């Protein structure tokens, strides 16, 4: 199964972002983007790709340990950015050092459970809202609108293991479906060495 570890913003915070994204849909060039669906909005911590089911028990144990060592995080969705001319995202503000540490712990948990992970990159906290169709688009008008976005604070209290079910129908615009496989409360104490 295709898996990733994530933090999922609560629906009220997703609704705030949704109001801005609805405005982005009306901008010229919006049809040149593939918009991510709200039920799938998340902050990816560690993308694992295809994982053998036999690795799941050990992966669960190690992710639970990572969550247990990490305190709840004060976060908010904030501003906008892009990866080249191919992906548009909103950023994250708040406990970013702790979020980065949770991402590193989730990555390490997957590696130690035997999941072959891609090369390690520095974590960039973001929530993808759109990708360019064909891989290249002028994202400036969308960045201008998204750049002023400031969502409300929320407390992230769970590390979630998510399964990504890729589209199979071939229908243009069909989105992956995400399903929660498991979740663990963030239970660490702030300021305690990790």
Describe the protein's architecture and organization:
With 194 residues, the protein is an alpha+beta fold. The chain is built from four helices and nine strands, in the order βαββαββαβαβββ. The protein has helices spanning 11-25, 56-68, 96-112, 140-146; strands spanning 2-7, 33-35, 43-50, 73-83, 87-94, 126-132, 154-156, 158-165, 177-185. The strands form two sheets. It has a five-stranded antiparallel β-sheet, with helices on both faces. Strands 3-1-8-9 form a four-stranded antiparallel β-sheet. β4 (73-83) and β5 form a beta hairpin. α2 (56-68) runs antiparallel to α3. The radius of gyration is 17 Å and the shape is globular. It starts with a strand and ends in a 9-residue tail after the last strand. The model has no long low-confidence stretch (mean pLDDT 90).
Principal-axes shape call? globular
Number of distinct beta strands: 9
Instruction: Give the terminus-to-terminus CA distance.
Output: 30 Å
Please tally the helical runs, counting DSSP H or I stretches of 4 or more residues: 4
Give the C-alpha Rg. Answer: 17 Å
Please state how the strands of the largest beta sheet are arranged side by side: 2-6-5-4-7
Structural class: alpha+beta
Uncertain residue segments: none
Largest β sheet strand count, sense and barrel closure: 5 strands, antiparallel
Question: Which percent bin holds the helix content?
Answer: 25-40%
**What series of H and E elements makes up the topology?**
EHEEHEEHEHEEE
Beta-strand proportion: 25-35%
Q: Could you report the average pLDDT, rounded to the nearest whole number?
A: 90
